[in-house]
Amino acid sequence: MEYEKHSEMLSDQELDIVKKGFEWISTQQIQSVKELSSTLSAHALWRLPNPYITRLILKQEKDGSWNSSIRDTARACSALSTEGIVFMESERWLLARKNKNSWNEDIYDTAYAVGALADMGTQERGGCKWLYENYCPAWEQVGTTSLIIMALKKQENLAGSKDFESFIRGKAQWILSKKGQDGGWEHISTSNLAIQALILAGFKEEIEDSVHWLLENVRKSGAWGNKEDDINATSLALSTLGLYNEK
Length: 247
Prior knowledge:
This protein is mainly alpha-helical. Helices cover 59% and strands 0% of the residues. The chain is built from 12 helices and no strands. It has helices spanning 12-26, 33-45, 52-57, 70-81, 88-96, 107-119, 125-133, 142-159, 165-177, 188-200, 208-216, 231-246. Helix 8 (142-159) packs parallel to helix 10.
């Protein structure tokens, strides 16, 4: 496999870390929708052969959902969209479960759904408004705020608007203020979400140290994880590095 320098971002040594990460992933038994989705997305970002497409589609329910779950369906839809695949029945399933501009009045269900709809090319202004208007101290966590930024920014990019620009920039700066001296945040997965959100929000230069921190915290196996090798954390890290390498 060729791991291209899409721009002159990652060094050859850093690209070797990416290669080793994908080699580790290839040896894993990946079953859950969450893990299949994140693994599929990582392969798509690096333009690698993607056997996970078929495996994820085979887990789809007849009604277009995955596990009748908002989050799993949104994750799967976002992942498949990276390969240009959109199922209209899945989009309809998600939209049918919106109530008063949110999904279950739940921050995570709503953020994942709003982001997935953007990835599928569907504008969802009501969901954006709900996320923006209901932001509160309980949501002021790095991972949660990162998901909100990504959902709003994807919808903004789709609509060609800047309706939430001030909010997004303010929250992105807050996330940066919570960064540790080493460049990371508390957990690997949270750090990946933060870096991805900051890249999407236009703060790429501010997270160079975070990318180096991520590369330095790879495990001997080639995987990432807090205390042990973790499929989702590894796939998220590979996606983060792919985003950083190309934007």
